[in-house]
C-alpha cells in the first residue's frame, strides 16, 4: 500500500496544514482547499499569515514561562501549586502516563512543518523585497529550530524531519523516522540558529518585539550547546549513569557515552557570542531617595559595605542603583519589553489562557482576591542569602545539610517598627519572624513570607491597600478546608506588581493586573551559562566566533568567569564570590545562583535534569511552616515541618518525558524513553 501523505504533496492543498484546533489564528480562515501553495506564497498577506500560524504553536503547549495548565515545568523543588492537588501529585510522583501533557510534541511538529513549508517557498514572493524575504525566512528558521530545542529539553533526542519533506512513494512502514541522537539534535539546532542569525536584525521595534533577533538565535544555540555539554549528555569520568539503554532499534546510542571536555568550551564560546554582540545588559534601576519613595516603591536600601561593589558605580558596583527594584521590575510589568535591555527572547503578550498575568492570579492572596496556591518551598526560601552574602542561620538544617546554626528566633516588635529597624520589610514590620529580616534584595522581590506587605494599589479605597498578609490558620489567608491555601505558608511575589489585585472569580479577567511578558531567555541566564561552562573546562581550546570573524581562547579563566558572575551578583546587591579557584565550590555557587536568579522561570526543572541532580534534589522531603497553627502558636508555626501534602519522589524515568503511545504507533521506528511503556 502506498501512503499518499507527504509534506510537499499535501501542501498543495492547505487542508493538510490546518487540521488542528478550531481556535487557531485567523490565517486558518484564509487557507482553503482551493488555494495552492503558489497562491499563498506569492501574496504578502497570506505569506505573513502562514508564518504567524507557525508562531502560534509557540504558545499554549510550548511556552517557556506560564502557569501550570499546559506547562507545569516551572515547578520542581523550588515552587509548588495546590489548587489542582491530584495533578501536582501525579507530576511529582511520576504517576502521569504516556499520554499526559503531550500537546507540546504535537504542536511542535505542526510548527516545524509550517515553518519548513515557509522556508521552502517564501522566495517566490515578489511582493516582498529581498531583505524582507531573508528576514522572514530567518524567522521561520529560528521558529523551527526553537521547536526542536523545546522538544529536546523535554523529551531528549527526537526525530529530525527532512527539510524537503518525506517521499510519499515509499511504503507506509518506510516512512517512519528514528530518533536522532542528542548530539545530532543539538548540531542541527546550532547550525539552523547560525543560519538564522546571519539574516536576523540585532533589534526589533516595540511593535515586533516578539519576533526573534540575532541575539535570540545565538542565545538559543548557546542553551542547546550547554545542555549537550552537561552531564545528561556528557557523562563525567566515573559516572555510572550514561543512559546506555536509550538506543534506537539498530542499537545506536542516543546519548553520548564518553566525556568530552571540549563540549564545555564550545558552550562557553556560544554564550560569549551573545555577550560580544554588545546588545544586552542587566537592567538596573536608579536610586530612590526617601523623599521620592511612595507606597509600593520603597526607598533604596543600600547593601552592607563589601569593599568592592559598594565603592563603584554601575556596572562595576551598586553605588548608584537600587538592587531590589532592579530585579523586581524585570518581571512585574513595570518595564515594556522594548525597554528591557536583558530580555533576549519573549513571546510578548501573545500568551493567553496561561500567561504570566494569569499566573499572578494564583499567587495573589485572598486579600487581593487571588487564588493563593503558588508557593515556595522552605529549601527555596533558605537558598536566598543574607544581605551580606552569608547563608541564613539554620539553612537546610531539616534536610541534613545545615552548618550547625539555628534558625533566628523572635518577631519584629512594635518598637522596632517605630524605629524602622528593618526597612527592607517596607510598610509593615511588626509580627514578622526574624528569619525573614536582613535578607538579600531578590528575597523581598520574590518571596511572600508570612507577614509581608501586599500593596494592591489598583484598589480605589485606601484601607484596601498596603495590607500585611499572614498565613496563620484562621487568618483568612492561611489554611482552609478548600484547595486554595499555601501548603508551606510561604508564597510567591515574583512577577507581582504593586498595582496587582483581582476582582471576581474568572482567571481570564486580569484588567487589574499589570500586563507582563514572559522572560523566555534573558541575559542573566547567558552570563551564568558562560561562567558555568568556563568553570568546567579543563583544557585550552581555540573556538571560532559564530560569524568566523574572531577566535576565542577558551579555558578556565577566572577573569572571564567573573564576567559572567559579577554583574549578576552586583545587580543583586551581593558581594562577589571568593572561591573562584575551586571548581567544585564554584559549581555549587553557580547552581545556587541559578536557583535564585531564575526562580519561577522554567529553568530549575530542566537544570536539575541536565545536571543529573534531580534524583537527589527532587527526592528530598519538602518542608515549610506549620500551617495548621494559629497566630497564638506563632513560634511553632515558624519551625519548619515536613509537608505531607507535597510529595517528593524521583525515579530514573522522570529524566525524560515519555513519548505518547499514539506517536509510537504512528511511527514504528520511534523508541520510547527508558522506564516508559509502548502499549496502552
UniProtKB/TrEMBL annotation:
Known InterPro entries for this protein? SusD-like_N (IPR033985), SusD_RagB_dom (IPR012944), TPR-like_helical_dom_sf (IPR011990)
Domain RagB/SusD, residue spans: 338-676
Instruction: Identify the GO cellular component terms for this protein.
Output: cell outer membrane
Tell me the ranges covered by the SusD-like N-terminal domain, including all copies.
99-224
List the keywords (alphabetical): Cell outer membrane, Membrane, Signal
Pfam hit, one: SusD-like_3
Q: Which residues form the signal peptide?
A: 1-22
The cellular location(s) given in this protein's UniProt record come to:
Cell outer membrane
Q: Does the record's keyword annotation contain Signal?
A: yes
Principal localisation:
membrane
Q: What family is reported?
A: Belongs to the SusD family.
UniProt protein name: RagB/SusD domain-containing protein
Native species: Bacteroides oleiciplenus YIT 12058
Source taxonomy: Bacteria, Pseudomonadati, Bacteroidota, Bacteroidia, Bacteroidales
Amino acid at each position: 500500500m502506498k501512503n499518499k501523505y507527504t509534506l510537499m504533496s499535501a501542501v498543495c492543498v492547505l487542508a493538510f496544514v490546518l487540521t488542528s484546533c478550531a481556535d487557531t489564528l485567523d490565517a486558518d480562515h484564509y487557507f482553503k482547499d482551493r488555494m495552492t501553495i503558489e497562491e499563498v506564497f506569492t501574496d504578502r498577506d497570506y505569506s505573513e499569515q502562514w508564518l504567524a500560524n507557525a508562531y502560534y504553536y509557540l504558545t499554549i503547549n510550548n511556552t517557556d514561562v506560564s502557569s501550570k495548565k499546559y506547562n507545569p515545568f516551572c515547578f520542581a523543588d523550588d515552587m509548588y501549586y495546590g489548587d489542582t492537588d491530584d495533578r501536582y501529585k501525579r507530576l511529582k510522583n511520576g504517576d502521569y502516563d504516556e499520554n499526559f501533557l503531550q500537546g507540546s510534541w504535537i504542536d511542535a511538529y505542526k510548527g516545524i512543518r509550517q515553518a519548513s513549508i515557509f522556508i521552502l517557498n517564501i522566495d517566490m514572493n515578489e511582493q516582498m523585497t529581498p531583505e524582507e524575504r531573508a528576514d522572514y525566512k530567518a524567522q521561520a528558521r529560528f521558529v523551527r529550530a526553537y521547536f526542536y530545542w523545546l522538544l529536546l529539553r523535554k523529551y531528549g533526542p527526537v526525530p529530525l524531519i527532512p527539510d524537503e519533506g518525506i517521499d510519499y512513494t515509499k511504503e507506509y512502514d518506510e516512512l517512519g523516522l528514528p530518533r536522532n541522537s542528542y548530539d545530532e539534535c543539538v548540531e542541527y539546532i546550532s547550525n539552523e540558529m547560525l543560519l538564522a542569525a546571519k539574516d536576523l536584525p540585532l533589534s526589533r521595534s516595540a511593535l515586533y518585539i516578539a519576533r526573534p533577533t540575532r541575539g535570540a538565535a545565538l542565545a538559543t544555540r548557546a542553551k542547546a550547546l550547554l545542555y549537550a555539554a552537561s552531564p545528561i549528555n556528557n557523562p563525567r569520568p566515573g559516572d555510572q549513569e550514561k543512559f546506555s539503554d536509550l538506543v534506537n532499534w539498530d542499537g545506536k546510542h542516543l546519548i553520548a557515552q564518553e566525556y568530552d571536555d571540549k563540549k564545555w568550551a564550545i558552550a562557553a564560546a556560544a554564550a560569549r557570542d551573545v555577550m560580544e554582540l554588545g546588545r544586552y545588559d542587566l537592567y538596573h534601576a536608579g536610586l530612590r531617595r526617601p523623599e521620592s519613595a511612595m507606597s509600593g516603591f520603597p526607598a533604596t536600601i543600600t547593601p552592607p559595605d563589601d569593599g568592592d561593589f559598594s565603592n563603584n558605580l554601575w556596572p562595576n558596583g551598586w553605588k548608584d542603583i537600587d538592587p531590589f527594584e532592579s530585579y523586581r521590575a524585570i518581571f512585574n510589568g513595570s518595564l515594556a519589553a522594548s525597554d528591557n535591555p536583558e530580555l533576549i527572547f519573549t513571546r510578548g503578550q501573545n500568551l493567553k489562557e496561561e500567561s504570566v498575568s494569569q499566573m499572578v492570579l494564583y499567587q495573589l492572596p485572598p486579600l487581593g482576591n487571588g487564588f493563593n496556591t503558588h508557593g515556595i518551598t522552605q529549601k527555596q526560601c533558605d537558598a536566598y542569602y543574607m544581605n551580606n552574602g552569608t547563608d541564613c542561620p539554620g539553612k537546610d538544617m531539616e534536610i541534613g545539610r545545615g552548618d550547625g546554626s539555628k534558625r533566628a528566633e523572635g518577631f519584629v516588635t512594635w518598637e522596632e517598627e517605630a524605629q524602622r529597624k528593618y526597612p527592607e520589610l517596607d510598610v509593615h514590620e511588626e509580627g514578622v519572624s526574624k528569619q525573614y529580616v536582613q535578607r538579600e534584595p531578590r528575597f523581598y522581590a520574590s518571596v511572600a513570607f508570612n507577614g509581608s506587605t501586599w500593596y494592591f494599589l489598583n484598589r480605589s479605597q485606601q484601607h484596601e491597600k498596603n495590607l500585611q498578609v499572614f498565613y496563620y490558620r484562621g487568618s483568612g489567608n492561611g489554611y482552609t478546608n478548600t484547595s486554595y491555601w499555601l501548603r508551606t505558608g510561604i508564597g510567591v511575589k515574583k512577577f507581582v506588581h504593586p498595582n496587582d489585585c483581582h476582582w471576581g472569580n474568572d482567571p481570564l479577567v486580569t484588567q487589574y493586573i499589570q500586563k507582563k511578558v514572559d522572560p523566555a531567555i534573558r541575559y542573566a541566564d547567558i552570563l551564568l551559562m558562560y561562567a558555568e561552562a568556563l568553570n568546567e573546562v579543563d583544557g585550552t581550546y581555540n573556538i571560532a566566533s559564530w560569524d568566523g570573524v574572531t577566535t576565542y581562547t577558551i579555558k578556565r579563566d577566572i577573569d572571564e568567569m567573573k564576567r559572567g558572575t559579577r554583574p549578576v551578583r552586583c545587580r543583586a546587591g551581593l558581594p562577589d564570590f571568593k572561591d573562584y579557584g575551586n571548581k567544585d565550590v564554584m559549581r555549587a555557587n553557580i547552581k545556587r545562583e541559578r536557583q535564585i536568579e531564575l526562580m519561577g522561570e522554567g529553568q530549575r526543572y530542566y537544570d536539575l535534569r541536565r545536571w543529573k541532580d534531580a534524583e537527589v534534589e527532587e527526592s528530598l522531603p519538602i518542608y515549610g511552616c506549620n500551617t495548621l497553627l494559629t497566630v497564638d502558636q506563632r513560634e511553632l508555626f515558624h519551625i519548619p515541618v515536613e509537608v505531607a501534602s507535597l510529595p517528593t519522589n524521583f525515579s530514573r524515568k522522570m529524566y525524560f518525558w515519555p513519548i505518547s503511545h499514539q506517536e509510537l504507533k504512528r511511527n514504528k521506528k520511534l523508541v520510547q524513553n527508558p522506564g516508559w511503556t509502548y502499549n496502552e
